[in-house]
Write a structure and sequence with these properties.
With 299 residues, this protein is of the alpha+beta class. It folds into four domains: 85 residues, no CATH class; 31 residues, no CATH class; 61 residues, no CATH class; 99 residues, no CATH class. Helices cover 37% and strands 19% of the residues. The strands form three sheets. Strands 2-1-3-4 form a four-stranded antiparallel beta sheet, with no helix packed on it. A three-stranded antiparallel beta sheet has the order 5-6-7. A hairpin with a 6-residue loop joins β5 and β6. The radius of gyration is 32 Å and the shape is extended. The termini are far apart.
Length: 299
């Protein structure tokens, strides 16, 4: 639907014709206007996702050369041109072989395979990575990246984010992982368990215990949200506020405490992210207090 047509008003500046404004032209016959006049229009498609969006385009583009479905009477936006019934291939469920024939389809697939596989893959090219602002993954660049956090790269296998890297942490633990996991923040697990004063041999058992406690805690929080978080801080900002275990999960594991006790409402509270990071692995109550509270809670 054509809303209005605007005539460009130009002015000669430094011997160049520059548009300084557009004046509205009141005329029903659109064919009267030159090709460079500005046209404001809305999409005529009944199923358009953006029916109220106003499009701006030169009048010269409102013809059949722009699209087989666009002319002076019917205006279809780009979104409707490539999707829905206005798309020439809408509802076409033919396979690649049915569209092109078996021999032609095979030939086209081979061409695409040669063009984008192996060393011909554009994502492997250094100039493409530089253009995208990506790091060129090689030993030197990854080594410099790890050095910023005092890690030492020992070996790298591959050329993309799936590359396998072997490195040493500041405490001389040797780690082997995938480069993309490093980017996501995965660091030395041995150092992490050392900070928890937990032998690395018990790490798998602890992770299983922690996962079970977390799942129970989420269930209990949903059930007793009004008691655990009466001010609704968690709903207000889930990233800024955390569900905290007053008697910590790691202490519960080391003392062989039932996960149901650690995840019970009497051991849960909502505190800020900063408070939780300061608290760390420490417990704010003694084990005797926890057990005493739980015994009263279950009566």
């Amino acid at each position: 639907m054509i809303i209005s047509v605007w005539k460009p008003i130009t002015k000669s500046i430094n011997k160049k014709s520059i548009v300084i404004r557009h004046d509205l032209i009141i005329e029903t016959n659109l064919e009267y206007f030159p090709m460079y006049y500005k046209v404001l229009w809305k999409c005529d498609c009944k199923t358009c996702k953006f029916p109220n969006k106003i499009h701006s385009i030169n009048k010269g583009h409102l013809n059949e050369k722009r699209s087989k479905t666009v002319n002076l009477k019917i205006q279809i936006c780009r979104s409707c041109q490539v999707s829905g019934e206005k798309n020439p291939k809408f509802g076409d469920k033919r396979t690649f072989e049915e569209q092109h024939g078996v021999e032609k389809a095979k030939q086209l697939k081979e061409q695409m395979s040669i063009r984008y596989s192996g060393d011909n893959n554009p994502s492997k090219r250094d100039d493409v990575k530089i253009k995208k602002g990506q790091i060129i993954i090689n030993f030197t660049n990854v080594s410099n990246l790890l050095k910023k956090e005092n890690y030492t790269l020992l070996n790298i296998e591959g050329y993309n984010d799936e590359s396998c890297i072997t490195y040493k942490c500041p405490n001389n633990h040797e780690i082997k992982t995938i480069y993309k996991y490093w980017i996501k923040g995965v660091r030395c697990r041995s150092c992490y368990y050392d900070s928890l004063r937990l032998p690395y041999e018990q790490s798998k058992k602890y992770e299983k215990y922690k996962k079970y406690v977390r799942n129970l805690s989420k269930r209990e929080f949903r059930k007793y949200k009004d008691i655990i978080d009466p001010n609704g801080l968690k709903e207000l900002n889930s990233r800024k506020y955390h569900i905290d275990h007053i008697y910590s999960v790691i202490d519960g594991f080391l003392n062989n405490i039932d996960p149901k006790i650690i995840s019970s409402p009497i051991n849960l509270r909502v505190i800020s992210q900063e408070e939780n990071l300061i608290k760390g692995r420490n417990s704010d109550i003694l084990l005797e207090e926890l057990l005493d509270k739980y015994s009263k809670y279950t009566k």
